[in-house]
Structure formats: C-alpha cells, structure tokens
Inverse folding.
C-alpha cells in the first residue's frame, strides 16, 4: 500500500499476474508431488492459510485483535461432523456441508460480535478468549457433541493413492475465495471504513462511518471462512475432540502468521501461513519432541514483534520503495532526504 | 429567526465537576460565530455534546427545527454538522486521499454498494479539489502520518469540508499553527462562509476570533457570561473578569 502512489496501475497489473502464477503453481502441485507426507502438510497449510486470511479480514483491517477465532473453526468442524452423522453423508457429499459450516459459524458470530464489539483493545481481546473457553467447555459437556471423545468424521471413499487430492483442491478453492474476498474488501468502501476504524474509531464515526455494522460485518465474514476451514480440517483429520477443534494454538498460529507476513496487508497472512505452517508440520514430523515446533513458534513470535513489528510484506515494500526513490532521484540531490524521510516516517 | 444550530439549557457534569450549567448558545445561518472562554470553561464539552460525542444531563440541541440531542456522531455528521478536534485527529495509516474518501462516502445517500471500490472518479475529483483549496493536494498520495502538524490541521479541515456540511465546528483551528498558516486558514474560512457554510469556532487566539467572527459567545465555568458582536465583547467587564479573575467575582464562580 505504501508503494501505491505513482506507478499503481503497473503494480496492480503485476500483482494480478503474480497471483495467477501462484494459483497455477498451487493447482498443479499435487500432480507433480505425490508424496503423501508432503501433500498432507500441503492440505494443512491451505486450511491454515485460509483461516489466517479470514482472521486478517476482521482483525487485520479493523485492528480488533481476536483471540477467539478457534470458536468458529471448532464450530465449523462440529457442524460438519454432526450434520454428516445426522444425514448419513459420506464421500464427496460431505464437502457440500462446508457452506453450512460457514453459515452456523456466521450465525454464532452475530451475537458474539454484538457483545464483544462493544468494547475495544485489551477488553475485546479478553472477551474473545472468554468465548473460546466457553465454546471448548460447551463442546466437552453438551450431550450432542460427543463429550470429551468428540465426534468422528465419515470415512472418505476414494482411492488411497490420491487420498489427499480432494481435500487439497477444496482447500485451495477456499483459500482462493478467501483471498479474493480479502482483496475485494481491502479496496472497497467497506474496507476503507474498516481501516478508518482501526486508525481512529471515534473520528471515523464523526465522518459518518457507522462503526458497529461495519465491524460486525467484517467479524461475520471472517467467521464464515474460518468455519468452512474448520469443517474441511475436520473431514481431513477424521475426528474432532474439544481440545483440538477448539485449540488455543489455532488462535496463536493464525495470529503469528498474520503478524509475520504483515497485519492488515493482503498477502501478509498468506505468506505467513505458507512459511510457518509447513515449517511447524515438518518439525513435528522430524523431531519426535512435538513441543519443539511450539517453542520455535513462540520464539518466532518474539522475533517478529521485536524485529519486524509490522511484518515482512510492509517492511519489504517500504525498503523497495525507498530504494527505487533513491535510484530515481540520484540526479536531483535535494529529493534524496525527502525520500528517506517518507520511508522512515511510515508506521 | 431560528438559529441554524442551537444548544438550549444544556447541562453536563463529569462526576462532581459541573462542566456546563444551563448553557444556551445559538449560531445563525450563514455566520461565523466564535466561542471563547478560559481553559476548562466547557467549550469543548459543548462541542462534544453538539456533535454526539457526549450525552447531555439536561437540555437540548437543535439543528434548525430538528432536535438532535444525544444523537450518535455518525448521525449528527449525516445531518450536516462537521467538526474538527482540538488535538488534531487524522487517520495516520491511510493516505491523505483515503482520509478524504472516508468523509465523501455519505454524500449521495446510503443505498450504495459497499463492495464498490472506494472513491469513484467524481468523489476523487471532489476530494482532490478540496485538497487544492486548502493547499495540501501535493501530498494526496502520501501517508497521513508523514504530514506536519500544520498540514494535519489542514487535512482535518479538508475532510470535514469535503462532505459539504451545513455548519462546521472548529476546535482551536489556529492552536500551535504558524502565523502565515493562520492567515491562510482565516482566508479559507471567509471564502467558504461567503459560499454559504456556517462556522462555530472555539479559539484562544483573540485576533483570529475577533477578526473572523460576527458574533462571539463567552463561556465561564460552564455558563454563558456574555454574547454579542466582537466590539462589545472585547470591552465587556464580565469577559475581562472571566479571563483575568477579579476577586469579587469568585463567589459567583463558586457555582461549580
């Protein structure tokens, strides 16, 4: 965003090309790589990337940091599980339940949003954490969620050699849709209102922005995608138990991914997820100590907050812009300090 | 004649502090009105109440004949009251042009596609036109965070004005601003006023207020102690008391 002025049209065109190239590579990836271990990590990564993009649509753009999105993830998982069991669905038809998972998560997000979005900053964060614990406890104790042993997914009925492929392509479709939604929102009137709320909510209200409907809409959209990601994850894993469907590490991972790549940017959460999730999975597979990846995740979080508080994407964009400005203005010497100042002062 | 903006008998307390006590202030259509008074006399509280940022304990606010008491800020703005803040508030992580586009959205009614790209051609033209007018169009693409203090003041004024409000409330527009920029601001305000915009200005810079305003209201301890043309206000003993604090007036002031 900081690089937009000037050659915006060219960059936007380049961005579209790059996006298409990435989608094309991701689309042929399972054809080229058939190793089940790798494709399993790939599916997991797509699920988390979609969740990170969804989280960013709300928290990144509005500045309201939610640590309770696992509520929607778990709700999606349980929705698919309970609906598939009740309606005796299996095979491909289970995927048809994903919109339902998103719908149930959305329905839940409305009352939660109306409560939590009345307060700001730390209070908001704490309330979302409280929601998270309520949801986890509810899943453990309600009669229809299967208690602590959870709920089993129907067995997929397709060929074992390409077992991961359907999950992969549904995950990819979800990720592309989430990213498209994020892109559309970011450039829109609605997105501008969200970012205005992030910078100064009261001032925005004094310019005609209605904060509650705007924040709530973003919260609900974010919940829909997170719920669908949860539903897909459930079918892929094959089981939902309360402490994994409603997992505090889910919230932490999604937040680290978004912060690492760049909070509130379009590609930041995507980049964060594509790097962090495979790294975590790989570490878990290669070192029997499963806590290693969690310790490293924590260390990475520290490093990002201390060293790259704004994330990789904004920092890199700024460096490139400053470099370009310097190169362009070498003949006109008085322009140099100006370019330097602009680069420094950007938040 | 009905005033364009009128606060009638407004009373407001914060805990034990009586910020406003039965305060009545009127602004006639098409004028530039001033609101002065010592620090803590309730000027900004009155602004906050007029623009929906605070609720009244008693009294009412009218815009024309319409009662707007305790309406929310977004509603008040939509009805045609724009304001700036004493401590300038802009959106630092948006570009200057994006700052402007936040305010332009409500101009043509509410039934608009929220997913349309922010700022159509006409909106952008209008926003850039206003930035030309205030003199910061050269920074349209820059992050608002990179602006200087004076430029921020101009930006806040610009995005309030771009929505074409009927009346603009300025909270210390000249505070901390260099003399040539003050002249620039005064010129812009006069020009807009000539084109039909009404102003209510809180300001401590007396030359600025007395030079611009046709009518000045003086607040002290939350009540109106004087109101009238600047020439009369300037020599009103009660105003001098309010500012200089004559001893015998202290009992009166004990109302707080």
């Amino acid at each position: 965003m900081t690089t937009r002025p000037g050659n915006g049209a060219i960059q936007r065109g380049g961005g579209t090309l790059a996006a298409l190239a990435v989608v094309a590579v991701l689309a042929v990836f399972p054809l080229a790589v058939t190793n089940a271990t790798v494709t399993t990590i790939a599916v997991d990564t797509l699920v988390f990337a979609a969740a990170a993009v969804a989280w960013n649509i709300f928290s990144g753009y509005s500045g309201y940091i939610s640590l309770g999105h696992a509520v929607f993830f778990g709700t999606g998982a349980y929705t698919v599980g309970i609906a598939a069991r009740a309606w005796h669905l299996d095979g491909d038809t289970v995927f048809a339940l994903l919109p339902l998972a998103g719908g149930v998560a959305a329905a839940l997000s409305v009352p939660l949003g109306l409560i939590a979005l009345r307060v700001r900053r730390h209070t908001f964060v704490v309330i979302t954490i409280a929601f998270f614990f309520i949801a986890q406890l509810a899943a453990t104790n309600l009669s229809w969620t299967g208690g602590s042993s959870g709920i089993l997914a129907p067995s997929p009925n397709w060929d074992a050699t390409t077992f991961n492929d359907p999950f992969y392509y549904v995950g990819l479709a979800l990720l592309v849709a989430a990213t498209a939604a994020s892109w559309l929102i970011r450039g829109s009137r609605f997105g501008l209102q969200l970012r205005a709320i992030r910078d100064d909510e009261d001032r925005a209200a004094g310019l005609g922005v209605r904060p509650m409907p705007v924040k709530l809409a973003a919260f609900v959209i974010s919940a829909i995608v997170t719920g669908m990601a949860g539903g897909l994850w459930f079918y892929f894993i094959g089981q939902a138990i309360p402490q994994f469907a409603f997992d505090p590490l889910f919230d932490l991972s999604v937040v680290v991914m978004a912060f690492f790549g760049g909070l509130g940017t379009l590609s930041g959460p995507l980049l964060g997820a594509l790097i962090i999730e495979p790294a975590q999975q790989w570490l878990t597979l290669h070192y029997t100590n499963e806590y290693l990846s969690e310790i490293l995740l924590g260390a990475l979080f520290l490093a990002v907050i201390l060293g790259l508080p704004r994330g990789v994407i904004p920092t890199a964009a700024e460096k490139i812009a400053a470099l370009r400005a310097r190169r362009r203005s070498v003949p006109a010497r008085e322009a140099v300090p100006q370019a330097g100042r602009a680069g420094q002062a950007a938040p | 004649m009905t005033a364009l903006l009128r606060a009638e008998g407004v009373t407001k307390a914060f805990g034990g502090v009586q910020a406003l006590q039965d305060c009545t202030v009127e602004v006639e259509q098409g004028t530039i009105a001033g609101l002065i008074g010592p620090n803590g006399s309730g000027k900004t509280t009155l602004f906050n109440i007029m623009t929906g940022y605070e609720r009244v304990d008693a009294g009412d606010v009218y815009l024309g004949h319409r009662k707007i008491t305790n309406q929310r800020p977004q509603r008040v703005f939509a009805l045609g009251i724009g304001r700036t803040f004493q401590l300038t508030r802009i959106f630092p992580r948006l570009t200057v042009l994006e700052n402007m586009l936040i305010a332009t959205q409500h101009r043509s009614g509410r039934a608009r596609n929220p997913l349309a790209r922010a700022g159509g051609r006409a909106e952008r033209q209008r926003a850039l036109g206003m930035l030309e007018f205030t003199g910061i169009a050269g920074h349209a693409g820059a992050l608002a965070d990179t602006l200087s203090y004076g430029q921020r003041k101009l930006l806040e004024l610009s995005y309030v004005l771009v929505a074409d409000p009927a009346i603009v409330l300025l909270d210390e527009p000249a505070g901390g601003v260099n003399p040539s920029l003050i002249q620039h601001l005064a010129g812009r305000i006069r020009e807009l006023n000539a084109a039909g915009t009404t102003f209510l200005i809180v300001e401590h810079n007396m030359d600025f207020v007395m030079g611009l305003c046709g009518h000045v209201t003086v607040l002290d301890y939350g009540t109106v102690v004087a109101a009238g043309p600047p020439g009369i206000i300037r020599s009103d003993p009660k105003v001098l008391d309010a500012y200089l604090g004559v001893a015998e007036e202290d009992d009166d002031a004990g109302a707080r």
User: Anything to note?
Assistant: Confidence is low (pLDDT under 50) at residues 1-10, 332-347 of chain A. The first strand of chain A starts at residue 151 and ends at 152. Strands of chain A lie at 151-152, 239-240.
